[in-house]
Amino acid sequence: MRRKAFLVALLTLALMLAGCLFPCRVVCDEEQTVEQEEAAAELTAALHAKAAVLMDADTGRVLYAKNGESLLPMASTTKIMTCIIALEHASQDDIFTASAYAASMPKVHMGVREGQRFYLRDLLLGLMLESYNDAAVIIAEGVAGSVEDFAQLMNEKAREIGASHTHFVTPNGLDADGHQTTAEDLALIMAYCIQNEDFLEITRTSSHVFTDVDNKSTYNAANLNAFLNSYEGALSGKTGFTGNAGYCYVGAAERDGKRFTIALLACGWPSNRTWKWADARSLFDYGFTYYEKVNSEFPKIDIPAAQVKEGVVGTVPLTYDDSLIPDILMSSLDQPEVSYCIDRFLEAPVREGLQVGELYLTVGDYQVCTLPVLTAGADARQDYWYNLKRLMDVVGL
Q1: Does residue 157 carry a catalytic annotation?
Q2: Which entry of 66, 76, 238, 258 is annotated as an active-site residue?
Q3: Hey, which of 32, 156, 170, 323 has its CA 20 to 30 A from 308?
Q4: Annotation says 389 is catalytic
Q5: CA 289 to centroid of chain Cα atoms
Q6: Does the pTM exceed 0.85?
């Protein structure tokens, strides 16, 4: 036991000499922590979804998860990726033609006929409001030439966003082998999508009436996302259902500068269609109640001065700019930590503003930011004239 304590002390001393500091933590209010722990436990017990995630939409940090990394089918929530890919690769004024394959899609569908032409904007509104499966295929083939090539674009975008466990096979979310995601990935994809104003405008439209390009058929699309009008601050969302996936939902909400995304997978089957709304409300309520956007929770630390070899003064103070710390959503359960790693031994001359290390701000496993540690003063190098003056001072000349 004594040997272990000695080794820990020795390691700590070595790190300090190397200019590294173990994380400095903030102690949270115990009463608030207990209250939130109880609320999180109650939330887990109340949720119907097999997998659920609440995410800080601005950072992608998971704030609450129930089986957040479980691989599951996602039904028509797939269409948020279909929509964003189309917006990034085509113009809403583009005209796309329905293929025989598109016309064969099952309900929910527009019932298009092979050869019909549509403006992309109308297809996107039909896709996101009414969840038309044939619209998804027309979009995929129009943008990429085939469903397979469009799925490749979807998967590339998923990797780019950081949704590393997601794999798309279809543009509409119909059941297919290997078509799957996690609640964490799906919430992250939604966080990416809501950065696009066109995506928000389309998904927030209440209804849309349109025709094909040749004005031969008229279509009506009503927004199936009932949450838009029933929850204060609701931004966007997409429902989904298949026999394998069950009811699914992905959504976003914003109030008081706090922006969250949620994802619900396997949230009941027929006769349980309202469960997703109850779960969505519970997740958002938990986020808005217990999380605040702050940056003052990180402890201000004093970094020891660096030694300057052959410097006139011999040391220089070190500092960092805490005004660069971004606002971040935090709760009583979070443990903000500050650590740093610096070069404690410098060689003269040293100028003011020289970066000599980095300061790390983290909350749990999430790295909030890295700040440069800079010299807050200068130190000149001892030269011939400096040493001569010192000698003369010593001998009293």
Answers
A1: no
A2: 76
A3: 323
A4: no
A5: 20
A6: yes
